[in-house]
Fold:
Amino acid sequence: MMFPLPPRDEDDRDMRFVLQRFISFSAFPQYANVSGLRLAQAGFFYTRLGVTVKCFCCRRKHSDWRTDDGTLFRTGNFIHVMDCAFMLGTDRRNVPMHENGRQ
Structure:
């Protein structure tokens, strides 16, 4: 039998909530020219280290934000590990943002 793993560190504790992931981008450097909301919806939160983000599920980090002509970076499964449960839709921990603001 498998048991759920505890959060790996204090900063990761609530990152299963899209709202918490989105809030983490309040300190994200604007020169990276990426959408914190899109990244939060794609499972990522800001690590507060340079422009590095991390998936709350597969733990993969990403910081290579090359864009073409100022176009905002488009999130995709290439920034997750191939078997990321969030991207595969099998992760049940993710808590989406609700329109009324309650979790």
About this structure: The two ends are 30 Å apart (CA to CA). The first helix runs from residue 18 to 24. The first strand starts at residue 44 and ends at 46. The chain has a mean pLDDT of 79.
